[in-house]
Specification:
One of its GO terms (cellular component) is cytoplasm. By secondary structure, the protein is mainly β. It has a single domain, classed as Ribonuclease Inhibitor (Leucine-rich repeat, LRR (right-handed beta-alpha superhelix)). The protein is built from no helices and four strands. The protein has a four-stranded parallel beta sheet with strand order 1-2-3-4, with no helix packed on it.
């Protein structure tokens, strides 16, 4: 579990890809405008990205085979920002 809630983060460092046991990531209430592709190589089950400056969720999110919950409230996404391919 990694909780980076409300830290004024503008980008996620590439070193996060070394956390190969990470299943829960909360990066809500930051200043993120994009999600890096290397984030989607992690074994995440829960990804919380609410209250950022995101305008879209990258297609690479489909690589998160174990993802059970994607929380994306109050982002700058227009229309349907939630990726429809999240596993059930």
């Amino acid at each position: 579990m990694l909780n980076l809630y409300h830290n004024c983060i503008k980008s996620i460092p590439e070193a996060i890809k070394n956390l190969q046991m990470l299943t829960y990531l909360n990066i809500s209430r930051n200043l993120l405008s994009t999600l890096p592709k290397y984030l989607f190589d992690l074994p995440l089950k829960v990804l919380v990205v609410s209250n950022n400056k995101l305008v879209s969720i990258p297609e690479e999110i489909g690589k998160l085979r174990d993802l059970m919950e994607l929380v994306s409230r109050s982002t700058h996404c227009s229309g349907s920002c939630i990726y429809r391919g999240v596993n059930k």
